[in-house]
Amino acid sequence: MQRVYNTIDGELTKLEKQKGLTSQDRERASRALSQMVNALEKAVEMQREMTKTKRSGGDAKSKEALAHAEDLRREIAERLERLNRKRTSPRSSA
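Structure (tokenized):
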């Protein structure tokens, strides 16, 4: 899960720093990010299932891993929202 997050983080950082991307570049980056986010979502869901299937409702380590996964997912969602707002704000003010 951490590897997927690190990959997404790197791609988001590149997108956040780049300006003047062509529409093709943005589309390509969006598709790649979408695939990575889907992989992260699957990993989070697997962690949820593993935590649920533990006999005693999951041990502390599993619950901590799930909380960490949820935090990573939330952070990525927030960054994607900020990136989207940056892209749409120049259009709406023009």
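The first helix runs from residue 2 to 17. The mean pLDDT is 78.
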